[in-house]
Amino acid sequence: MQWPTLFKREKREQQFGAMPYVGDVIGSFYSLLGRYTRSGQTVTSNTAYSIASVHRSIEVIANGIATMSLNLYRETEEGKQRLTGNLTRLLKNPNAYQSGFDFWVYTMCQLKSRGNSYTLIKRDANFNPIELHPIQTSFVRPYFSKGLVFYQVEDPIWKGTYASYEILHFKGLCTEDPLMGKSPIALHAESLGIDLAAMASSADVYKNGVLKFLLTSDRKVSDATALRQSLDDVINGQRRSAVMPEGIKMERMSLSPQEAMYIEQRKFSVEEISRIFGVPLSMLNAGNSGSDVELEMQQFFAQTLQPEAERIEQELSRKLLREVDKDTHEFKFVFNSLMRASAKSRADYYNAGIRGGWLRRNEARYMEDLDKFETGDQMLVTADLLTADKLDEYMTAKIDALQAQAAKNNNITGNNNDTQS
User: Model's pTM, two decimal places?
Assistant: First the structure.
């Protein structure tokens, strides 16, 4: 069975021009209206942010990327050379209203909450990038047309159609459409809806249910309305006491949050959100998973931040570098900056690099914002290490030295080591 040509992108473009996928349209509605879940809660990016663990997870990832130094390097015969210039200044000051830190935090928040993040590249007359302007995800729709990618922007300020090279597009997990990343919040709306429902139910318990009672009597009550009003006045703080008629029994009807298992549900939700965003529980201030905290941090760097950094580096290299420079230049995040919060980690890193012969002392001082000194560019190596091709020469010299020492200590005159006068 063949699908109608309406659902085939190539045929559809020939007949109707470039149009969005049905999934694109659904994604647009999701951005505006959210997804209604079986828990009875509507999950959107904004409602998801009201969950503390979601807010914290996205904040941790965004801050992690924003605090890392982003440099431009050129491959040379001597190795990598760090460059400075217009592009590096652009990434530190992308526009007139955002710092580099603010720009990357906003970019990552859009990416992790909506699955896509878009930035408009403004260029000068020589085609050099001069400004970067982030655009809210819900205003942008990418599409194919005649084999090329275009972006339709409905933002009131930047409204228009842009070619691929004019937009930085950072995509999340792509499972169906290669042009659109999936939103983690949309994919896991049911799980987040349960947490929102638990929050709402818990709030209702605290608001209305903590002091809810049932009055029973084995005899006729003469004025039930007055009795109920008297008890309500005490509960609401309008009176200090109430007199209960003989035979009246009062029973509590409401469930405490513990009895309703809200606390257990919230704990499970934190663990689930930790898995969704790849953020360790220790970084959500929710304990840890039972493993070493340092190991959790290493896994977070390797499995969460490193892929995000690689995604950004490749997109920047594709869209900001000139064609002639793409084979020799690249953008790279420096993960060393994440160690700035730990003096011990920095000291261990520098010590290993300097003693291992792959880090100059002046390079370490530069990373610590300290002045250089005259001999600081000289490489140091430990004395007990040598290259493999020098091993035979080293062992021969060692044997000769031992033999000379032995001959000196066991001479025929009996004057060992020249100790006798």
Answer: 0.67
